[in-house]
Amino acid sequence: MVVQTLRQDEVDRLFQALADATRRDIVARVLVAEYSVSGLAEQYDMSFAAVQKHVAVLQRASLVSKEKRGREQIVRGEVDGVQRARRLLDDYERIWRQRVDRITDLLGEDAGDDD
Question: φ and ψ at 65, to 5 degrees?
Fold first, then answer.
């Protein structure tokens, strides 16, 4: 049984966004507190434009949201996006555990055959 709660394109965007260490770090930072994009750019040894691109990838995956406040673009973490990722990984874990349970059952049946 394969559980797929998200569309394939959503899964692709989610894992693509989380595959990069800088993007995972941005998510962790903005889940703790809102940051301006320029404030985030100060945290990394890369250009403002590069940080903007990372934020855009995270936005497409719904892991962060961005809003304009005055002259700044404020980034905040989206708990719903993180929860979707967790639920997907939970589904994969459940599939894996079911497989382990079936193997354990088969091994138990084999052990019972020797008696």
Answer: -130, 160
Over 60: is that where the pLDDT of 3 sits?
no
Distance in angstroms between the alpha carbons of the first and the last residue of the chain = 33
At which residue do the structure tokens 């973490």 appear? 77
- Paired residues of 73 in beta bridges: 68
**Per-residue pLDDT at 113:** 65
In one-letter notation, the amino acid at residue 84 is: R
* Half-sphere exposure of residue 22: CA atoms within 13 angstroms, side-chain side: 16
Which residues face 75 on adjacent strands?
Answer: 35, 66
The partner residues of 65 in beta bridges, in order of sequence, read: 76
Judge whether 65 and 78 are in contact, CB under 8 Å.
yes
Cβ 33 vs Cβ 44: under 8 Å: no
Residue located via tokens 């990984």: 89
Say whether 67 sits in a helix, a strand or coil.
Answer: strand
